[in-house]
């Protein structure tokens, strides 16, 4: 799984950088902001599973490129909310469309039966990982004796 994941990320990143001028990590941030307009930096860090300093750098670069903008929170002026600019919305739309085409091309390698099995396995593994993450998050830390 690691090999496939790393290869697909590296290939995808090269592709998106060449065609759109953004990395896969940039897209992850843009897509998360698209899904939750107005999210805070701390929420973005939580959702993206990336390090705080990396997320801050990515956000700053995307603001500079004109894909994102920051807005002071209405309820709390200490809070900064993130939104997609019109250019950011366009980028997300175009990359989703292109990503779907790339995924279809990649998955065309599998027969219909293999694809059904693959999807069942992915769903099963995802469910198991989500259950594990929930139980790990709710487990109380044990004290040292």
TrEMBL record:
Q: What is this protein called?
A: Putative transcriptional repressor
- Record GO terms (molecular function): DNA-binding transcription factor activity
Domain HTH marR-type, by residue range, is 1-127
Q: Which organism is it from?
A: Cupriavidus basilensis OR16
InterPro entries recorded for this chain? HTH_MarR-typ (IPR000835), MarR/SlyA-like (IPR039422), WH-like_DNA-bd_sf (IPR036388), WH_DNA-bd_sf (IPR036390)
Q: Name one Pfam family in it.
A: MarR_2
- The organism's place on the tree of life at top rank: Bacteria
Biological process annotations from GO: response to stress
* Gene3D superfamilies tied to this protein: Winged helix-like DNA-binding domain superfamily/Winged helix DNA-binding domain
């Amino acid at each position: 799984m690691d090999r496939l994941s790393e290869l697909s990320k590296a290939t995808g990143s090269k592709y998106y950088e060449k065609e759109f001028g953004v990395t896969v990590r940039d897209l992850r941030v843009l897509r998360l902001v698209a899904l939750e307009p107005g999210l805070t930096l701390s929420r973005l860090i939580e959702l993206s599973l990336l390090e705080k300093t990396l997320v801050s750098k990515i956000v700053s670069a995307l603001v500079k490129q004109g894909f994102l903008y920051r807005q002071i929170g209405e309820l709390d002026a200490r809070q900064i909310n993130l939104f997609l600019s019109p250019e950011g919305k366009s980028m997300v739309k175009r990359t989703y469309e292109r990503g779907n085409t790339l995924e279809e091309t990649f998955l065309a390698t599998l027969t219909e039966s293999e694809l059904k099995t693959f999807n069942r396995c992915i769903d099963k593994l995802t469910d198991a990982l989500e259950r594990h993450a929930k139980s790990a998050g709710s487990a109380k830390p044990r004290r040292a004796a």
